[in-house]
Each structure stands twice: as structure tokens, then as C-alpha cells.
């Protein structure tokens, strides 16, 4: 079906000859083709966390002017930065096939920005990880002296991501093993500027180089990129977009998008549901995850 949204817009016109402000009201009509977007049949495959709807509806999402691909902005980029173990860099490289399937868009990796480059740039702030935190995480990572310093999120995004964003990028995600912080918080798992289509994540507190490292990286990268398409964290369902406070919560979390989140993503990108479901079924089958493979098989119509 095709839905029309009537949005009242307030336009303020100021006269050059006086200080009087005249207000005019206009109606703007937006036509959104939502045929094939609804996923009500998936409801039974997902666990709800709330009785009443707390998340934004598809209508509200459409009216929010979300970050979207167009004829120029067609590609998702990953930007590794800081000191990084070779095995972590390899995991990121190996995740491209999964991410291109998950997002149904091209995904490319930019050259890693070394920590020396970060330190030499006077516009980027760094500081030492608080002693109260560093001892535990240094032990968890088996010795990580080269990750002793945190990187301030906003200054890095401004310099290396917003100012140097590739012309064809719809979204750029920075990935670092360093702890990150901002003026409000001593540490962050991630940070983003959705209006600029850029964000970054830190694996400092989320990986221990054990068997879950690959999947923890997959979850946080996928989640943060979805957020860059202006799709907010999910409260109503168990979903990839749930907020996590710790490594343990992340590992118990979902790889799947809730029906409502997936509807928004479908509207944004315009992919074919069945093609995506079938390709994800095959990936999880090859990786030996029977539960997720069967889930994506059930999703196909």
C-alpha cells in the first residue's frame, strides 16, 4: 500500500524593513511506498521484551529523514585505527562477506590509521586508561601495553571520518582496539554522528581473543552500522539493536534484527527480503550455526 504523510511545517519569514515576524503554515505531502515492507508474519519468530510499543514506528522513521544511500552514496566503509593485533585485523577483513550479505550493500575496508598517526595529530585527544580499569583489561587481553591510551571519540571522528569521508560513502565505521571516551563518559563501547553517517566502536572491553572474539566483533560492527542508517536501539524485542552494558550481555545478545527494525532497514536500502534471508541462511549453515540457519530458512516466503 502507499501511505501519505501530512506534515505541518512552520515557516518563519522576517521582513527586511521591520522586526515583525510573519508565520505561515504549509502542509507537505510525502508519499512512501510501503508495499512489501511489512513483516508481521515474523512476529512469532521473535521474543518481545515489552507489552506496549516503545520503539519508533515505520511511519515515524520515514518522517525522520534518515541517512540513506542514493545514486552517489552507495558504499559502507570500515576504518581500522590505532594499534591492532594482526588476528583482529584479519577477523575484520574476513567479515566483509557477512556484512555485505547482512546489509545487501558493498562494504570496503580503508587502510588502517596507525596510533603513531593519531598521536602526531594535534587535533585528536588521547589520555591514559584509568588505572582502575586498565589492570583488569590488560590481564584479560594477556598483556596489552600498546593499548594503554584511550582515544577521544569526537575529535577522531571530526578529523579522520567527517573531514575525509569517501565521496561514495553512505556510512563509515571506525574500529579500534583502543578504549575510547568523550567529555561525558570515561569510556564508550561506541559513538556516532548519524547526520554525518559516521561512527566508531571500541573492542577494548568486548573481546579477550577467545573463541567469541569473531562473533563479538560481528555483533558490534553490525549494530553500529545499522544505527548509522538512523535506526535506533530496540527496546520492544530481543534484537541485535538491544543496548548492552558488558561483554557478557553482548555474547548473550542476538544476531537478528527484530521485524520492526528490519522493516525500517528494508525501506531504507530497498533490498529483497527472500534473497537476504536465503544468503544469510547459507552463511550460518556453513558456519555450523543450525539455529540461525533454520531461522532464516523459516523467514523465507
UniProtKB/TrEMBL annotation:
Gene Ontology BP term (one): proteolysis
Molecular function per GO: metal ion binding; metallopeptidase activity
InterPro entries assigned: MetalloPept_cat_dom_sf, Pept_M54_archaemetzincn
Source species, domain of life: Bacteria
Cofactor(s) the protein requires to work: Zn(2+)
Keyword Cell wall biogenesis/degradation: no
Assigned keywords, A-Z: Hydrolase, Metal-binding, Metalloprotease, Protease, Zinc
Metal-binding among keywords: yes
Protein name as catalogued: Lipoprotein
Lineage, uppermost ranks: Bacteria, Pseudomonadati, Bacteroidota, Flavobacteriia, Flavobacteriales
Amino acid at each position: 500500500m502507499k501511505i501519505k504523510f501530512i506534515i505541518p511545517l512552520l515557516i518563519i519569514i522576517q521582513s527586511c524593513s521591520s522586526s515583525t515576524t510573519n508565520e505561515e503554515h504549509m502542509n507537505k505531502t510525502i508519499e512512501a511506498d510501503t508495499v512489501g515492507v511489512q513483516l508481521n508474519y515474523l512476529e512469532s519468530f521473535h521474543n518481545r521484551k515489552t507489552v506496549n510499543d516503545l520503539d519508533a514506528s515505520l511511519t515515524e522513521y520515514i518522517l525522520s529523514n534518515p541517512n540513506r544511500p542514493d545514486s552517489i552514496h552507495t558504499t559502507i566503509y570500515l576504518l581500522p585505527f590505532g594499534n591492532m593485533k594482526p588476528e583482529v585485523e584479519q577477523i575484520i577483513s574476513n567479515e566483509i562477506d557477512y556484512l555485505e550479505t547482512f546489509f545487501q550493500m558493498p562494504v570496503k575496508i580503508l587502510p588502517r590509521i596507525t596510533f603513531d598517526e593519531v598521536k602526531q595529530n594535534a587535533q585528536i585527544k588521547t589520555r591514559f586508561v584509568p588505572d582502575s580499569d586498565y589492570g583488569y583489561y590488560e590481564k584479560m587481553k594477556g598483556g596489552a601495553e600498546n593499548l594503554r591510551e584511550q582515544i577521544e571519540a569526537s575529535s577522531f571522528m571530526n578529523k579522520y571520518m567527517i573531514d575525509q569521508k569517501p565521496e561514495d560513502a553512505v556510512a563509515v565505521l571506525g574500529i579500534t582496539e583502543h578504549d575510547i571516551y568523550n567529555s561525558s563518559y570515561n569510556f564508550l563501547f561506541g559513538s556516532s554522528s548519524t547526520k554525518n553517517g559516521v561512527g566508531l566502536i571500541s573492542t577494548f572491553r568486548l573481546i579477550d581473543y577467545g573463541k567469541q572474539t569473531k562473533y563479538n566483533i560481528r555483533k558490534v560492527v553490525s549494530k553500529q552500522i545499522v544505527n548509522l542508517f538512523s535506526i535506533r536501539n530496540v527496546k520492544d524485542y530481543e534484537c541485535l539493536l538491544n543496548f548492552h552494558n558488558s561483554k557478557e550481555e553482548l555474547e548473550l545478545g542476538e544476531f537478528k534484527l527484530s521485524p520492526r527494525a528490519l522493516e525500517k532497514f528494508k525501506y531504507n536500502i530497498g533490498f529483497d527480503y527472500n534473497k537476504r534471508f536465503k544468503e544469510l541462511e547459507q552463511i550460518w549453515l556453513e558456519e555450523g550455526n543450525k539455529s540461525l540457519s533454520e531461522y532464516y530458512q523459516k523467514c523465507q516466503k
